[in-house]
Fold DEAD box ATP-dependent RNA helicase, putative.
Amino acid sequence: MKLFSSTTRAVIKKKDDETKVKEIIPSDLNTFDGLGIKQFLLPTLKQFGIIKPTKIQQLCIPPLLSFHNVLGGAETGSGKTAAFALPIIHHLSTDPYTGFALVLTPTRELASQIADQFKVFGSCINIRVVQVVGGVDVIRILHHLSGSPHVVIATPGKLVSLIDHLPFSFDSAKFLILDEADRLFDPSTGMLDDVQKIRSKFSKTVTTGLFSATTDSLIPQLPALGLADTKILITGERQKLSDNCDQTYIFMPNKVKHCYLTYLCINKQCIVFCGSVLRTEVIFRMFKSMEIKATVLHSALPQIARENNLNSFRSGEALILVATDLASRGLDIPDVPLVINYDVPHTAEDYIHRVGRTARANRKGLAITLVDEYESDRIQSIESQLGVQLKEYKVDEEKVLNILTQTSNAKEVAFISLEGSEILKRAELEKKKKKQIKKMKKEIKLQTGK
């Protein structure tokens, strides 16, 4: 199969001290047939309404089919999973042995979604997929692994804890895929050491695919990762804010923020992003006390609860999803007309990922960031970095104040219900972990001078 010619290969350019990657897509790659994937995959794609490859699929499928390492960057919802799943299934159909491919991803939810897509695309060859993630009994995981899976999808920490007990090895694997690679290789997330331990179990000839919505931090790391000789280095468009998203803010005192939030959420379908597990749980319980149809998603919930809550929001049983940044990246959540930042995000990147949950697929959307007296500097910094200016969202102050007593009472009930709960204990552990990560980031900054 013909690979990109020298004129269509990704060209790395330096501009304003930032690495920029320009890609050119030949016209013959506008169909899955033209990309070179096996014919048996086409009916399955058509069955699910996937007729034409997306940009990231056009760029990444050909080099992966030819066993070249790739770095693929494209925004959430652009078809990144199919970009690596289809080449893997293509080759697996002719050489179906155990441990053919490993996919690493930062969260259990992403692992579940990736597993689902592999099972759908590979249904015609009876693909065997196993997830190695937290929240699942170890005996059960090992039992499934003993069934000779073709593809293993895992979170780094869980796989490292079992790596010496696997009934097979990855030394002959054909593919290693790192999804949300920027998070996997970020020292502050605590996953980097585990990722490197896992990579050491693979042959140096394994085909490696790195995928992420943001690639700027990854490109300089490639030599240190042993990927300097990557033949094809490609990226999609850098994730940006949709022109269809109306970005706004409301400024209010911190002590009445919950009141403004409730006013905005009544009878609305939306995602509310909070800055911590504890705050997420308090807002959810406050809504519950007020009989507002909401559900919640954060890392302190057991896996089964996270899955049930996501399904509740997807089905429309719950109109509001109150979540930490866990829900801002990668998860298969339907487009919503409204995103509310209850807490101002800590970084411009987090802001993009949150706000990117609305105004997708050419639909209109609204993002409202609630800003209190402690957060004005942070939102101004985000505006400056992104080159945008949020517009003020006008509200009827009298109507907001009319529900102040009701919402304050509900918030108090929420706090009381949390006392002594397992969620509170987990939230406190999460808080300690965040402090450690913050300290680590400062140390890294001092060491690197960046």
The first strand starts at residue 11 and ends at 15. The chain has 17 helices and 15 strands. The two ends are 43 Å apart (CA to CA).
